[in-house]
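Q: Okay, next protein. This is Phosphoribosyl-AMP cyclohydrolase from Kushneria phosphatilytica. I've checked the sequence twice, so it should be correct. Can you predict the 3D structure?
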Amino acid sequence: MSHGAELFRELETASPGTTVQLPHLLENMKWNDLGLVPAIAQQHDSGEVLMMAWMNEATLHETLSTGRVCYWSRSRNRPWRKGESSGQQQRLIEMRLDCDGDTLLLLVDQQGAACHTGRRSCFYTRLTHEKGEVVDAPLVDPEILYGNSK
């Protein structure tokens, strides 16, 4: 297979069952200047979009090898194992790469709230042309999840 954008162009017309070795995909992915790609977490059985975070190559490998989702925390500048503080873990069901090689989709089994606000999803504010409206209540008080650490 080819390199870079050519690889992903070839995959556009590939038949189901076509395989590409993971190292080849990773070296051809479009990582940002910090070596990160966005990773969207979606509940595997309901389709609910839970959150977006960042992954680097090491956290991607850890997630695939352990089955427990690990992101890269830009604020902490270190790996962040989802639920390490709150207990609200994500178990990986399946990981997918988008057609351009620049975004990951993680199909997960989310335990409890995915958002640090205590809500199930980080996407709890609905936008219209006039306003933003909070549409989901927290499942749990963030103080219970994190204490005073947040």
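A: Here is a summary of the prediction. Residues 31-112 form a domain with the Ubiquitin-like (UB roll) fold (CATH 3.10.20.810). The first helix runs from residue 4 to 12.
Q: Noted. On to the next one.
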